[in-house]
Every structure is written in C-alpha cells, then in structure tokens.
Amino acid sequence: MRERSGGPHAEKRNAVRTEVNSWIRDHSASASSTDFAGIIGFDTALRDPNKEARLTSGCDSGDHLNSNDAGMTAPGRSA
Questions:
Q1: pLDDT of amino acid 56
Q2: Does residue 2 lie in a domain region?
Q3: What is the distance between the alpha carbons of residues 59 and 35, in angstroms, rounded to a whole number?
Q4: How far apart are CA 16 and CA 76, in angstroms?
C-alpha cells in the first residue's frame, strides 16, 4: 500500500517499495525451499480491494495508515 502522506519524494519511495515487493514475490516463487519458508503479503492481506492504496475498513485504525487489532491478525490468517 502506498503511504498516506505525500511530500516531495512520495512517488520515488512508492516506486522503490513496489520494486522491492515485486522482487520478494518473484524471488520467493522461484527460490529453493532453503531460501524462504514462505512470505506473508501484508499488502495483500490489508488493502482495500476497491482502493488498493488504502487499508480495508475492517483493518483500518481510523488514520488510514495503521492497522487496528483485526489488521494485526489478518496477515497471520492469510498464511
């Protein structure tokens, strides 16, 4: 998920975040079992399917940036 705040470097930070996440997902899919036991996609578990840059309302603490208690358990349930 993208960060909530803008700022002069927001787009660059988002591009780096996206690149790193893609590398992790791609590498784990092709890695041997000794490289990764698995990955948990916090982004996938917590994002709103209709607005991918936001937390889903059931996991949002109210500030649209941090997860609530349900959001803290959602990644574990997705594993």
A1: 92
A2: no
A3: 30
A4: 25
